[in-house]
Structures are given as structure tokens and as C-alpha cells.
Amino acid sequence: MKMRLFTPGPVTVPQNVVDAASAQPLYHRSPEFMALSRSVWADLQTVFQTNDPVVVLGGSGMTGIEAAMIAAHAPGEQIVILEHGRFGQRLTEIARIHGLVPHVLSVPWGESITPDLLENFLNDLLNDLLNDPLNDLRGVWFVHAETSTGVLLDAGALTSTIRARCPDAVIGMDAVTSIGIHDVKVDAWQIDMAITGIQKGLMCPPGLACVSISERAEQRLLSNPRRSYTLDLHTVLDHQRDGLFTWTPPVTLVAALNAALKRILNEGLDNVWARQAASAEIVRQGARHLGLKLFGASTSNAVTVIEHHRSNEIRRELRDVHHMLVAGGQDQLSGKVFRIGTCGSTTPTDAHEITEALHTVLTHLV
Ligand SMILES: Cc1ncc(COP(=O)(O)O)c(C=O)c1O
Predict the structure, then answer these.
(1) What is the pLDDT of residues 236-246, one digit of tens each?
(2) Taking burial as the number of CB atoms within 10 A of a residue's CB, which of 172, 237, 336, 344 is the most buried?
(3) Ligand 1: which of 83, 144, 149, 177 to mutate, judged by most atoms within 8 Å of the beta carbon?
(4) Would you call 147 exposed, middle or buried from its count of C-beta atoms within 10 A (0-12, 13-18, 19+)?
């Protein structure tokens, strides 16, 4: 029997997207592929709610995040990173590997980072940096929806706080589990670089990263030293303006992304977000009704994190008996929680079905 994915990515890929991905590859310099690429780039701007270009790279979400960070910052630059889970920690790891100086605001997993917390942090840091010859804070990076904890930050309020204190900082946002799931407003929130993969809200097979590049970010990548050949966003952006991918792209995935974006825009962004919100709410309510405790603030519609000391057994039973795959906890939450993903094409009916299966599993748990 086919396994159903209730993981926070990859997600079940709709049949029209599977069909697009499995067609014969187009030649990447053909007029047909160039037209398809232009359509993808334009549709991505709609989904990101931005007029900025959104470039597409072969690789996973992390590829996009790493490319964005090294484009925006030169070695030695001071940046702030907001950490509220495993993926925020990865931002810090990337920054350190590339010689940046990250100042980390972290909260215990499951908690949110509020604008007040950020404002106090920025005030203290900017005071400290007054006595530093390299006192320029060049960027602030954060994860919008933490997939390890199920916490969605109030990105609009956070970016207002950042702009008030650091008007010239590049704001980078990992939107890997929020684009196509939540109402992400890249322009209205003044996000300079928002990054996603295509295997979650965009309901494709994994393999492409999408990065929006604001004018401020573009100025940075024009003046910063190039530190990667294949991930150089300067070159990628130049080529995209000529209607080309820089390298031979995974053309079948670009075709899949085209089909998925058309599907999303046909459904309507508001309807997509409403469907995702309804599905996540059914899982949250269902879990509470079963007497289960949700982990932390639980505000992401991509994933619901549920505490249980027998999480691994529950996951096994869901997989072996009900053919439903849910994710386990990461790092400090390993074995303590399980995570039910509701991103992509998940419907409220799917959400009811996983909740019912969970009920059955809990009834049999002795
Ligand atoms: C919030 C977040 N950021 C980054 C990533 C990394 O994406 P990828 O696995 O596509 O590199 C993930 C993947 O789960 C994620 O959930």
C-alpha cells in the first residue's frame, strides 16, 4: 500500500506536478524552456508577494540560504541571528563557516521571539558596538516558521523593529516552511532575501531553491567579493535578467515547479493559505481532543509538534498499520515529540484522517 506523507516536506506531490516532472527534459536554451522559466520566475514573484526578482537554483533549501548569506555579507561582517530552533542554529553555522560574526538571540525551543525581546537585544548590542571600530550591523537573519518546534514568528512586527533600529541591515528570512503555507509578504515586510525550497508549500519533488533579492541585497552582492563559483547570485541574477539559467538547471524540476505554481495560483493564494490553516487547525484540535499536549507556541500551519514519551512507537504504528508517515523530533526533541506535517497539497480531509488514525493508535497503545 502506498505510504502517505504527513511529513513537513517532502510532501505528496499532486499528479499534474508528477506528470510535468516525468516528461522528457527540454533543452535548457530552447525558446520553449526559456518561456517556461520566465513564467516560473513571474509566478514566484506573485507567491512571494514581491516585485523583486526571485532567482531559482539547483539544490535544496539550504543551498539557497547559503548562497543568499554569502552574497549579502563579506567575511568579518557582524550580523544578528534569531535562533528559535534547529534551523536557526543552521543559520549561525553557515555564518561562522563563512567568516561572519553572528550575534545570536536565542530562546528555548518552543518559545517565540517577540519584537520586544528583539528590540532589547538590538538596543544592548548597538550600545556595545558603539565602542567597536567595526560597529556596523550588516544584517539580521531569522527562520520564519521553525519546523523543529512548530513556531511561526510574527515576521512583520520583527522586521518593523529591525528597520527602526538598523535601517540599512539586510534582512534575510528562511521561508522554507512558510512560502505557500502562510501569507508571506516579502515587500510589505521589507525582507531583502527570502528563501524557500520547493518540496513543502510549493508541493514539488525536492531539488530547487528560490531566493528573492531586493535592491538593497543586490547592491551588497555587487560590491561583495565573490566567494562561490556555482552559488554566485550575482551571475545567476545577471543571467536570469537575460532569460537564462546560469548552469544546466534540473529542467524537469523547473517544469514541475511551473505546474505547481499554476496549480497554486489557480486555487488562489488566499484559498491555499486558508486550506493550510484549516488542515493544521484540525490536527491541533484533534490532538488536544485526544488529550495530547502540543509542544510550545504551536503557531505554524506547516507542522504540528505533539509531545509524547512514546513518540517513536506512535510513529511506527502510524507507518506500519495506517501507512501514514509523520516525522520525529530533532536533536533535543528526539523521541520526545512527533511532528505532523500539513503543508503542500494536504486537505482538511487528510487532516481528519491522520487525526482519526492517531486516535486508533493511542487506543491500542498499552
Ligand atoms: C525551516 C527550514 N529551513 C531550512 C530547511 C532546509 O531545507 P532543505 O532540507 O531543503 O535544505 C528546512 C527543511 O526542513 C526547514 O524546515
Answers:
(1) 999 999 999 99
(2) 344
(3) 177
(4) buried
Q: What share of the chain is helix, strand, coil (3-state, %, to 5)?
A: 45, 20, 35
Ligand 1 binding pocket includes 159 (Cβ within 6 Å): no
Alpha carbon nearest to ligand 1 atom 16, residue: 147
Residue pair 147/295 in contact by the 8 Å Cβ criterion: no
Task: Specify the residue for cell string 517577540.
Answer: 114
Cα 163 to chain centroid, rounded: 22
pLDDT in tens, 348-357: 999 999 999 9
Question: Where along the chain do its domains lie?
Answer: 4-10+269-364, 15-265
4-10+269-364 folds as: Aspartate Aminotransferase, domain 1 (3.90.1150)
Q: How far is 221 from 209, CA to CA, in rounded Å?
A: 18
CATH of domain 15-265: 3.40.640.10
In angstroms, the CA 170 to CA 298 distance is: 28
CB distance 60 to ligand 1 below 6 Å: yes
Whether the CB of 195 sits within 6 Å of ligand 1? no
